[in-house]
Amino acid sequence: MNKTGNKKSRSLKKRSPKKGIKEFKEGLPFHRDKLNLNLVMAEQGEKNLRFLGTILNDLAAIKKLCDEFDQPLFSNAISKIRGIVSAMVVDEVEYKIGLRKILKLHKILEDAFEGFLSNSLLPESFEKDFNLEPMVQTSRKKEEDINNKAVLQKLDKTADTSSLPLFITDSLESVEKVQARLLDLENDPENIELVNSIFRCFHSIKGAAGFLGLPAILKLTHNAETALDDVRHKRLKVTSDLINCLLEVRDAIQRLLIQLKELNDPSLDDSQISHVNIEKAENLLGNFLSDSNSSKIPSLANQSVVDKMQKPKSVFGKGQNIEKDKSLILDVVRVPSEKLDELSELVGELVIALSILSHNEIITGIEDREVRDKLNQMEKTTESLRNKTLEVRMVPLEPVFSRLARQVRDLSQKLNKKVKLTTKGKDTLVDKLVIDEIYSPLMHIVRNALDHGLENEEERIASGKPGVGNITLSAYHQGESIRIEIIDDGKGLNKEKVLEKAKQAGIVKDDSALSDDQIFSFIFHAGFSTADKITNVSGRGVGMDVVKKTMEKLRGKIEVSSKPGKGSVFSLQLPMTTSIIEGLVFRIGENQFIAPLLSVRQTVTPRKDELQSIHDREGQCFLYQGKLLPILKLYEYFRIEPSFKDPSKAMIIIVENGHDSYGLMVDELLHKQQVVIKNIKDRFENLHGISGGTILGNGQVGFILDPEEIVQRMKN
After folding, report:
1. Is the pTM of this model over 0.90?
2. What is d(CA 153, CA 273) in angstroms, rounded to the nearest whole number?
C-alpha cells in the first residue's frame, strides 16, 4: 500500500454520521487481531475443522462490521476468503494450498486495512488483486454450490432435543474408541473381538441417531456396520484400504457431531455453521459394499438439508443378536467438567480453612484429648475427600495415545516411511486439565521424530538398521509425578548442527563449556530449526517452542538425550494434578514461599570450606558431590531483607534446571505440605519467578516459586 499517494488511490464511499468511518475504525482492530492470531496458529498445524470454524467466525464478524458500516469492498474481500475456507472445510481445496492462498489474500487485505486506517484510501489494484487470483477462479466454487454438495443437518424445532447434548458427548467418545480399535485391528487383522467392539461403537451411535432423526449419521453408521459384518462373516478382508475407509467414515461422523454441537449453540447463526462433506466417506464405503447392502438407506451425498426421519420401529432390528460391551455394565453418572472444577475449588478452600484452623494459637493450646482426636479425624477425612476429588478428575492417557497413533499412521503414509509405534502405560491416570493440554506438545515431538528423526527405508538398511523405524510412547507414575517418554531409533540429533544454528541465531556465543544437554536445549528456542527444508509436517522452528511453553504452563519439565545414529529420547515430567502440589515451605525474612517438590533435588547447609568465590563475589558457589554449584540469593532477586547473608548460615535448596543444578539460598526451611494453587498472575503485572499463590496455615499468602524462570533471569 502506497501511503504517499504515488499510486492511484480512491476514497471509499462516505458514510452517514450515524455509522461513520470513525466507528468502523474503532471496531476493526479487535476482530483483526483475533483473525491474525488464528491464522498464525493455523499455519503451525494440520487441518482442524474446529479451528477452521473459528476462522470462519472471525471472518463473519469482520464482514458483519463491514456491512454494518457500509464497506462493500472490504465485505466482498472477506467473502472471497470465506469461500476458500469453506472449500477447505469440505475438501474442495487441499488444506495447505488453501492456507497459502488465504495468507496471501490476507496480506493484501491487511495492507489495505492499514492504508484505510491511516488515510481512508484504497489502491486501484485492490479489487483486481482479489478477483484475478488463479486459485479462486479454478478451485473455489460459489458458496451455494459447495453447500449443495455438503450436508447441513437440520434440527426439527418441534422435536425433543433434550437428549442431544448427551448423544453428542457419548458419540464423540465412541468415535475416539473406533479410531483406537481400528488402528489396533490393522496390526491384528484376525482379531474378531476388535471387529465386534468397533461394530458395537457404530451400532450405539446408529441407534441414537435413528431415534433423534439424524439420517446422515444413520446412513454412515449403517453402512459401516455392513462392512464390519462382512468382515465377521469372512466376506471381506481387513486391509489397509478398508481401515482407511472406516477411518474416513469415523472422521465424517465426528464432523457431523461437531456440526450438531454448533447447531445446538444459540450463539451461532446459520452462516457460522460449518457444512460437512460426507461424499468421500460414502464413495469409499461403496467400494466395499454390494449394491443391495449399500442401498438400504437412501443416499444423502447431494442433500443440503437433512430433514427429520420417522423414528424406526426398532432401534436394533428384529431378531438381531446384540453383544453387550463390558464397559457398559458399570453404573455411570455423567457430570459436567465445570461441576468437577467447582468441587475441586471448594475442596481446596476446605483444605485451606482447616489448615488455618489447625495453626490457630487457641486451637493449638487446647490439651483436651477428645478435641485433639476430633481435629485429627477431621484432617484425615478432609485429606481423604481431597484425594477422592482428585481421583474423580483423573482420566487415562489412552485417548491421547490413540490420537497420536493415528498421527503416526497418517504421517508415515504421507512421508512414505515404514514405522512401528509401540505404546506402553496408556492406562496411566492424569488430571483432566493435563490431558487437555498435553496432546499438542506430544504431537509436535512425534511429528519431528517421524519427519527428521527416522530415516527412510533405504537409509536405514544402508546403515545396518531394520527397514521399519520404531517409535515408543510410554507413560508411568514416578513418585508424585507422571513421566511420558517418546523414544525413536532414528539418526538422532546432530549436536554440531544444533550448535552452529544456535550461533547463527545469536542464542550462544561462547560454546567452550556447554554440555550436550545444554546444546540440545537450544531446540526449544522460538524459531529454531535444524531442518534443511520446510515441509508440510515440520521445519519452521515453531513446534518445539510450543512444547516448552506448554510444559511451563503445566509446571512440568522436559529433558532431551540423543546419540548419533541411535535415536533420541524426549522425557516429559508432569505433576499428576495442576490444582494441588506437594511443596517445600521456606522463609526469607518475614516472607514465606513454596518451592514445588518436583523441582527440588535436595536441601543442604554448606560448610565454609565448601564455599568458593567467583569474580570477587564472596560465596557465589559451593562444592556439591564433586561439582561446583552456583548459589542464587533469592533475597537479592525479590529485593527483601533476609535473616542471613552468609551462605554457611543459611539453607540452600538445590533445584534442577534441565540437566543443570543450582542452589537457591533461603533463611529457613519450615515444613513440607500439599498446597492448593491459586492463580495470582492475572491480578499482578510483572510478577516474575512466581507461578501462583496459596493460603498458608497462618493465614498468610505464600508465593509458589517458578525455579526455572528464576534461574534463567538470575543467570542473565
Report:
1. no
2. 10
